[in-house]
């Protein structure tokens, strides 16, 4: 049985099984990608590559509804959110089409040694290992900067989104990219390890769990290959006593329920100032529990299914364990009976540091609530985490918000907004959330040879 299957998580219907790629197909893909790297396509003028990105952006825009529907059917994202994901993918492609040449201009380094500059070159074939939660965005975050720079990519997508993986590859070719620029491979984790070990592969980008990140980074390290990791997060949503409470509740519900809570930068730990905690919890709980569960393709649905039965079962176990160890359920706490992988919107309070849930990420519609007495306690609690991805702070005093944002140990902090992403802004974290940055001028240089050239004075 193929390990790549499209199964609709709203009704458990098998849509399609996809044949895996065998050793010959993988070997051929690597040969073609490596040949492309050594060709004028990768090492020559940038503009032909940027024209492909511009065409890709236009293609994505023209087929947005088709692409959004494929994703919603395959991993359960609400159709409106899938449209949003498709839109940001064309934004990323267009951003690099319009900015990569400027970003990759040689950078002068005044030096006593003489005229010195850094120029940016592709390093070779990369492997991209990506998750199901943003089935197009995760791919575009790797494709766009590396196609602009000239690194060919072999992509291993998550096993539950093969249709998204397949249609993405076809779009890239239709946009004019040569064979080898972006190759989707339905392969096993062992085959990923073999690719990383191959001398023609120069780096690997992974987004996914700590488990996968640790395994892939170990393989990359063993073979001295550059890697970037975008892993899990346990992001805080800090609401201070002077916050706009209605807006904080409105965005807090979105930040927890979007994509059924399966977002690495979703608001997961709500840290509330004691002066507003009761009001926030009352409004937040009422709004969260009034979510309309249903088919993600139905515009009236506000909470779809989890991406798979495994994801649902993992969440059931995690919440049950939290309650067994003393957490209190304010609302929810159970899977929804019947077809599909649905889980009730849930709020947990009373989680103490000895509860396993205290340090765990809940990758689903489960909010943890904590109450603190002041800003220092909020920062201390926010930083008491193995993760360091994103977070948000809500206060009408921007200076106060900036102070907390600087003190919170993560890669990204938003003030008076839920976490978000945009092509021109770097994305990434610290601690067990991984390392490296994607998007912006930082992302395009992660897999560049930043070569120093000096003309002796
Ligand atoms: N940082 C982020 O944006 C995301 C983080 N996650 C984290 O991952 C957790 C589970 O999501 P999953 O998709 O199941 O993540 P996962 O880590 O199992 O899968 C992510 C990708 O890594 C691949 N993979 C897994 N183990 C591998 C190995 N040993 N060698 C090579 N490739 C391997 C998978 O096939 C998939 O393509 C979530 O709970 C969340 O914490 C998931 C999605 C996005
Ligand atoms: C729109 C926010 C993107 C979050 C990226 C992630 O969860 O992998």
From TrEMBL:
Residues 4-453 form the Aldehyde dehydrogenase domain. SUPFAM superfamilies: ALDH-like. Keywords: NADP, Oxidoreductase. The active site is at residue 230. Belongs to the aldehyde dehydrogenase family. The keyword Repeat does not apply. It holds the Pfam family Aldedh. This is Succinate-semialdehyde dehydrogenase / glutarate-semialdehyde dehydrogenase. GO terms for molecular function: aldehyde dehydrogenase [NAD(P)+] activity; succinate-semialdehyde dehydrogenase (NAD+) activity.
């Amino acid at each position: 049985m193929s390990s790549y299957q499209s199964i609709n998580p709203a009704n458990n219907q098998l849509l399609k099984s996809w044949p895996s790629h065998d050793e010959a197909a993988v070997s051929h893909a690597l040969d073609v990608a490596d040949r492309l790297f050594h060709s004028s396509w990768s090492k020559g003028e940038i503009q032909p590559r940027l024209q492909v990105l511009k065409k890709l952006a236009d293609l994505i825009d023209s087929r947005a509804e088709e692409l959004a529907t494929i994703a919603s059917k395959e991993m359960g994202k609400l159709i409106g959110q899938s449209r949003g994901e498709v839109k940001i993918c064309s934004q990323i492609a267009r951003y690099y089409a319009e900015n990569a040449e400027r970003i990759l201009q040689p950078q002068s380094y005044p030096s006593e040694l003489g005229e010195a500059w850094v120029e940016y070159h592709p390093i070779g074939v990369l492997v991209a290992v990506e998750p199901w939660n943003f089935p197009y965005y995760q791919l575009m975050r790797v494709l766009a900067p590396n196609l602009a720079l000239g690194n060919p990519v072999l992509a291993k997508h998550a096993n539950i989104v093969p249709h998204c993986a397949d249609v993405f590859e076809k779009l890239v070719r239709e946009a004019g990219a040569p064979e080898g620029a972006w190759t989707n491979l339905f392969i096993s984790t062992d085959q990923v390890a073999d690719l990383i070990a191959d001398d023609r592969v120069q780096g690997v980008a992974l987004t996914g769990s700590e488990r996968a990140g640790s395994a892939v980074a170990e393989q990359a390290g063993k073979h001295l290959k550059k890697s970037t990791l975008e892993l899990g997060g346990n992001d805080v949503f800090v609401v201070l006593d002077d916050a706009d409470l209605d807006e904080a509740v409105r965005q807090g519900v979105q930040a927890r329920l979007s994509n059924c809570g399966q977002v690495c930068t979703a608001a997961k730990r709500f840290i509330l100032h004691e002066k507003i905690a009761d009001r926030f919890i009352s409004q937040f709980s009422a709004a969260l529990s009034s979510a309309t569960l249903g088919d993600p393709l139905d515009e009236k649905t506000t909470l779809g299914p989890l991406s798979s039965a495994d994801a649902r079962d993992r969440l059931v176990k995690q919440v049950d364990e939290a309650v067994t160890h003393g957490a209190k359920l304010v609302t929810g706490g159970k899977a929804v009976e019947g077809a599909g992988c649905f889980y009730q919107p849930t709020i947990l309070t009373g989680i103490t540091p000895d509860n396993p849930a205290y340090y765990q990420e809940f990758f689903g519609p489960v909010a943890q609530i904590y109450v603190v007495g002041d800003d220092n306690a909020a920062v201390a609690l926010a930083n008491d985490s193995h993760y360091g991805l994103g977070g948000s702070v809500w206060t009408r005093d921007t200076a106060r918000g900036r102070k907390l944002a600087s003190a919170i140990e993560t890669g990204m902090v938003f003030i008076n907004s839920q976490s978000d992403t945009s092509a021109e802004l770097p994305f990434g974290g610290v601690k067990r959330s991984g390392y490296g940055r994607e998007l912006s001028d930082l992302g395009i240089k992660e897999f560049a040879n930043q070569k120093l050239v000096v003309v002796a004075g």
